[in-house]
Amino acid sequence: MKLIDKMVTLHINDIEVEVEAGTTIIDAAKKVGVDIPTLCHLDLEAIGVTNKHANCRVCVVEDENRPSLVPACAEKVFDGMRIQTDSLKAVMGRRTSLELLLSNHPKDCLTCVKNLDCELQTLAHEMNIKDIRYEGEMMSHPKDTTSKAIIKDSNKCIMRRRCVTMCDEVQTVGILSPLKRGFDVVVATAFHLDMDDTSCTYCGQCVSVCPTAALAERDVSPSVWRELNKPDKHIIVQVAPAVRVAIAEAFGYEAGEISTGKLIAALRRIGFSAVFDTNFAADLTIVEEATELVNRIESGATLPMLTSCCPAWVQFIEYQFPELLDVPSSCKSPQQMLGALSKTYYAEQTNMNPDDIVMVSVMPCLAKKAESAREELNHNGLNDVDYVISTRELARMIKEAAIDFSKLSDDRFDDLLGESTGAAAIFGTTGGVIEAATRTAYEMITGKELKEVDFKQMRGFDGIREATLQVGDRSLKIGIAHELGNARKLLEAIRDGRSDFDAIEIMACPGGCIGGGGQPFHHGDIETLKKRQAALYAIDGASMRRKSHENTMVKKLNQDFLEKPGSQKAHQLLHTSYKAKPRI
Question: Which residues carry out catalysis?
Fold first, then answer.
């Protein structure tokens, strides 16, 4: 019999509980409704993320048969164990650990980006800590503001190493690790390099799991407010698909609430001149990518083709697999496509000077901030996108403007660049981009109508998934990965000749954009991600049109402006190139 199949019986706070051998105390306690506080523990088992370093000692409990307190997150249960989580010894042990952490932590909570969303702050409140009894020297590290996406403030690091688990084990990027010893120990980059000088992909997953603000997004909302106050500027905003199923969480709604109409209304109240839907550009991206895929298949060009909408994985392949740079699609991401069109097509249609247009993107992704700053993503000297704010940043802006989100009436996107299909909505989840692309590629290849558009074999939360679809007389083999560690496995198979895929979708974040580094913090609740995912599929299912090439505005754009998908003008505005970068 395997160890995991054996059951053990123990008592937690005098309550008998039976669990599988190998279970930790913290998980056993959950079975009897006992919550044990922790800071370092992180368990997203559904996507393969587990952090059990037992560093914080905030979860210590009393084992009646041992003299010392034990960490509940790492200690395994055994038959006959008697645990007290609320004994005086356990409570005082946890309190002392927390007070020591606070003694070496900055006291700028009021102006901290994670104020009221900081796990250290929350625990201090729950444990009723009003004074810091310990005084002494505090850490002093320079703040790293070099990255376009992530701010690193090591003075706020409490050494829980969740970021290390994410960066090294899950994403396999490996730029963060503990350095030095004793009082000087800190999580940092090798040789304390600036973030911008490393191989960071800016995926933001380190930010998502950091319990404090040692790692946080670069907040550009003050710059956006300043732009909105310039009467001579035309400020446009675009909204990504995953934002509309997550932002309501910041206002007390359940995860997965579809708040598209209220979101648009809030953006108008804030003062944006036009509100466009990134989903429109997602449809356009699909038409361009499907055209490119069909051309590659028919011409015998490089396969598989990788969708290139996720900027974090684009960074990943440039650093980690430069020999495969002929594999990604040359299409820009939807964010950048819409930005380029706003300063060309939209400017032309409205008789506006492109210099007077400012494009702001609301994205679930911190890597989009870095993407918008890439030198090659501009046209005629103008950036496609000027500012990128995260879902969290927009939520703060709405609160700053004293807008009651719950009382907003539903509004609609502006028509010119606002129409979208259900296929665009599922861009926000793992498997969604390639499912949308396949719906269009099928009809391009066969010339026949696709009756059943739900390719459910591409859906789910498995880190790597495969699907084979019959398209006319050809079988298309599809590969799907989310999280960069899984992407590495797929890319290694391609590099080593072990892959026979025709097309691959890669998303850097758990669950895709729904779990992006700029989304409302899910605090380890995988069900939150699943609810967001289900909401996107609900939008798709309820849509009148569910194939990107059926978007009437995309058709009009191609007829009147771009000439046709894959045209020279389309390549000039909607496509890009990639370059090898030295791995650091």
Answer: 289, 292, 309, 329, 368, 371, 376, 513
